[in-house]
Amino acid sequence: MERTLVILKPCTIERGLIGEIISRFEKKGLKLAGMKMTWLTDELLSEHYAHLKEKSFFQRVKDAMRVCPVIVCCWEGLDAVEVVRAMAGKTNGRLAAPGTIRGDYSMSVQENIVHASDSLETAEIELKRFFKEEEIFDYTPSYIWSLYANDEI
Ligand code: TYD
Questions:
Q1: Cβ neighbours of residue 108 closer than 8 Å, sequence gap 6 or more
Q2: So what's the pLDDT on residue 22?
Q3: What percent of the chain has pLDDT over 70?
Q4: Known catalytic residues?
Protein backbone atom coordinates (compact mmCIF):
# COMPACT_ATOMS: atom_id res chain seq x y z
CA MET A 1 0.00 0.00 0.00
CA GLU A 2 1.17 3.51 -0.74
CA ARG A 3 0.73 6.59 1.41
CA THR A 4 0.48 10.11 0.05
CA LEU A 5 0.16 13.62 1.42
CA VAL A 6 -2.82 15.86 0.72
CA ILE A 7 -3.04 19.41 2.05
CA LEU A 8 -6.42 21.12 2.08
CA LYS A 9 -5.32 24.66 1.24
CA PRO A 10 -6.59 27.82 3.00
CA CYS A 11 -9.04 28.50 0.13
CA THR A 12 -10.70 25.17 0.94
CA ILE A 13 -10.96 25.92 4.65
CA GLU A 14 -12.31 29.43 4.00
CA ARG A 15 -14.86 28.26 1.45
CA GLY A 16 -16.24 25.59 3.77
CA LEU A 17 -15.26 22.72 1.49
CA ILE A 18 -13.35 20.57 4.00
CA GLY A 19 -16.07 17.93 4.30
CA GLU A 20 -16.71 17.73 0.56
CA ILE A 21 -13.08 17.21 -0.32
CA ILE A 22 -12.39 14.67 2.41
CA SER A 23 -15.58 12.87 1.43
CA ARG A 24 -14.29 12.41 -2.12
CA PHE A 25 -11.20 10.57 -0.93
CA GLU A 26 -13.27 8.47 1.49
CA LYS A 27 -15.80 7.53 -1.18
CA LYS A 28 -13.00 6.54 -3.54
CA GLY A 29 -11.90 3.96 -0.98
CA LEU A 30 -8.73 5.58 0.27
CA LYS A 31 -7.95 5.07 3.93
CA LEU A 32 -7.25 8.04 6.16
CA ALA A 33 -4.01 7.24 7.99
CA GLY A 34 -3.43 10.70 9.51
CA MET A 35 -5.04 14.13 9.66
CA LYS A 36 -4.44 17.39 11.52
CA MET A 37 -5.01 21.13 11.33
CA THR A 38 -1.88 23.22 11.39
CA TRP A 39 -0.71 26.75 10.66
CA LEU A 40 2.24 26.46 8.27
CA THR A 41 5.38 28.57 8.63
CA ASP A 42 7.18 30.41 5.86
CA GLU A 43 10.24 28.30 6.62
CA LEU A 44 8.39 25.00 6.16
CA LEU A 45 6.76 26.30 2.98
CA SER A 46 10.13 27.36 1.56
CA GLU A 47 11.20 23.75 1.92
CA HIS A 48 7.93 22.38 0.58
CA TYR A 49 7.92 24.64 -2.48
CA ALA A 50 11.73 24.67 -3.00
CA HIS A 51 11.20 23.56 -6.63
CA LEU A 52 9.50 26.95 -7.24
CA LYS A 53 12.05 29.17 -5.50
CA GLU A 54 13.28 30.83 -8.72
CA LYS A 55 9.71 31.66 -9.82
CA SER A 56 8.31 35.17 -9.50
CA PHE A 57 5.25 33.81 -7.68
CA PHE A 58 7.20 31.88 -5.00
CA GLN A 59 6.41 34.27 -2.13
CA ARG A 60 2.80 34.75 -3.27
CA VAL A 61 2.21 30.99 -3.27
CA LYS A 62 3.75 30.63 0.20
CA ASP A 63 1.74 33.56 1.57
CA ALA A 64 -1.49 32.05 0.23
CA MET A 65 -0.77 28.91 2.25
CA ARG A 66 -0.60 31.01 5.45
CA VAL A 67 -3.90 32.89 5.17
CA CYS A 68 -5.39 30.49 7.73
CA PRO A 69 -4.57 27.02 9.07
CA VAL A 70 -4.53 24.14 6.59
CA ILE A 71 -5.52 20.50 7.02
CA VAL A 72 -2.85 17.94 6.24
CA CYS A 73 -3.95 14.39 5.50
CA CYS A 74 -2.22 11.11 4.84
CA TRP A 75 -4.26 8.89 2.50
CA GLU A 76 -3.42 5.23 1.99
CA GLY A 77 -4.30 2.75 -0.74
CA LEU A 78 -3.05 0.75 -3.68
CA ASP A 79 -1.24 3.19 -6.03
CA ALA A 80 -2.46 6.00 -3.76
CA VAL A 81 -0.03 8.60 -5.13
CA GLU A 82 -1.22 8.26 -8.71
CA VAL A 83 -4.88 7.87 -7.73
CA VAL A 84 -4.86 11.05 -5.63
CA ARG A 85 -3.00 13.08 -8.28
CA ALA A 86 -5.57 12.01 -10.86
CA MET A 87 -8.38 12.97 -8.49
CA ALA A 88 -6.78 16.40 -7.92
CA GLY A 89 -6.49 17.18 -11.64
CA LYS A 90 -4.33 19.72 -13.45
CA THR A 91 -2.69 22.51 -11.43
CA ASN A 92 -4.78 25.23 -13.10
CA GLY A 93 -8.35 24.82 -11.88
CA ARG A 94 -9.69 26.41 -15.06
CA LEU A 95 -8.01 23.73 -17.18
CA ALA A 96 -8.57 20.80 -14.83
CA ALA A 97 -11.12 18.32 -16.14
CA PRO A 98 -14.64 18.35 -14.70
CA GLY A 99 -14.90 15.46 -12.28
CA THR A 100 -11.51 16.21 -10.75
CA ILE A 101 -11.33 18.15 -7.49
CA ARG A 102 -9.69 21.19 -9.05
CA GLY A 103 -11.92 20.90 -12.10
CA ASP A 104 -15.04 20.94 -9.96
CA TYR A 105 -14.11 23.50 -7.29
CA SER A 106 -11.41 25.84 -8.61
CA MET A 107 -11.15 28.77 -11.03
CA SER A 108 -7.49 29.47 -10.21
CA VAL A 109 -3.91 28.23 -10.51
CA GLN A 110 -2.99 29.23 -6.98
CA GLU A 111 -6.32 28.76 -5.20
CA ASN A 112 -6.59 25.18 -6.37
CA ILE A 113 -8.05 23.46 -3.31
CA VAL A 114 -5.46 20.76 -2.60
CA HIS A 115 -1.81 19.93 -2.67
CA ALA A 116 -1.10 16.29 -3.58
CA SER A 117 2.33 14.60 -3.64
CA ASP A 118 3.52 14.04 -7.21
CA SER A 119 5.53 10.80 -6.80
CA LEU A 120 6.08 8.04 -4.28
CA GLU A 121 9.51 9.45 -3.46
CA THR A 122 8.08 12.94 -2.89
CA ALA A 123 5.21 11.51 -0.83
CA GLU A 124 7.65 9.87 1.59
CA ILE A 125 9.62 13.09 2.00
CA GLU A 126 6.48 15.23 2.35
CA LEU A 127 4.79 12.95 4.88
CA LYS A 128 7.91 13.18 7.07
CA ARG A 129 7.87 16.96 6.63
CA PHE A 130 4.30 17.40 7.89
CA PHE A 131 3.72 14.47 10.27
CA LYS A 132 5.50 12.98 13.24
CA GLU A 133 5.79 9.19 13.09
CA GLU A 134 3.16 8.72 15.82
CA GLU A 135 0.64 10.85 13.91
CA ILE A 136 0.33 8.24 11.13
CA PHE A 137 -1.84 5.28 12.09
CA ASP A 138 -1.74 1.61 11.07
CA TYR A 139 -5.11 -0.12 11.06
CA THR A 140 -7.14 -2.29 8.71
CA PRO A 141 -10.69 -1.18 7.89
CA SER A 142 -13.17 -4.07 8.17
CA TYR A 143 -14.41 -3.42 4.62
CA ILE A 144 -10.99 -3.92 3.01
CA TRP A 145 -12.18 -6.98 0.99
CA SER A 146 -14.99 -4.94 -0.51
CA LEU A 147 -12.38 -2.55 -1.87
CA TYR A 148 -9.80 -4.94 -3.28
CA ALA A 149 -9.55 -8.42 -4.77
CA ASN A 150 -7.43 -10.74 -2.66
CA ASP A 151 -4.69 -10.87 -5.32
CA GLU A 152 -4.46 -7.07 -5.48
CA ILE A 153 -3.16 -6.60 -1.93
P1 TYD B 1 3.31 22.84 -8.70
O2 TYD B 1 4.11 22.00 -7.76
O3 TYD B 1 3.91 23.17 -10.03
O4 TYD B 1 1.86 22.20 -9.01
P5 TYD B 1 0.97 21.09 -8.26
O6 TYD B 1 0.39 21.73 -7.02
O7 TYD B 1 -0.11 20.75 -9.26
O8 TYD B 1 1.86 19.92 -7.97
O9 TYD B 1 2.98 24.25 -8.02
C10 TYD B 1 2.70 24.32 -6.64
C11 TYD B 1 1.62 25.35 -6.42
O12 TYD B 1 2.08 26.63 -6.83
C13 TYD B 1 0.36 25.11 -7.24
O14 TYD B 1 -0.52 24.19 -6.65
C15 TYD B 1 -0.20 26.49 -7.36
C16 TYD B 1 1.02 27.39 -7.35
N17 TYD B 1 1.36 27.87 -8.72
C18 TYD B 1 1.01 29.16 -9.10
O19 TYD B 1 0.40 29.91 -8.32
N20 TYD B 1 1.34 29.60 -10.36
C21 TYD B 1 1.98 28.79 -11.26
O22 TYD B 1 2.25 29.24 -12.40
C23 TYD B 1 2.34 27.45 -10.85
C24 TYD B 1 3.04 26.53 -11.81
C25 TYD B 1 2.01 27.04 -9.57
A1: 11, 92, 93, 94
A2: 98
A3: 100
A4: 115
Query: Is the CB of residue 26 less than 8 Å from the CB of residue 151?
Result: no
Alpha carbons 53 and 31: distance in angstroms, whole number: 33
Q: Characterize 47-74 residue by residue with b for buried, 16 or more Cβ atoms within 10 angstroms of its Cβ, and e for exposed.
A: ebbeeeeeeeebeeebebbeeeebbbbb
Q: Which residue ranges have their beta carbon within 6 Å of ligand 1? A: 52, 57, 61, 91, 109-110, 112, 115, 118
- From ligand 1's centre to the CA of 146, what distance in Å? 36
Contact 105, 113 (CB under 8 A): yes
Beta strand spans in the chain (E):
2-8, 31-38, 70-77, 114-116
- Residues belonging to the chain: 153
By CB neighbour count within 10 A (0-12 exposed, 13-18 middle, 19+ buried), where does 12 fall?
A: buried
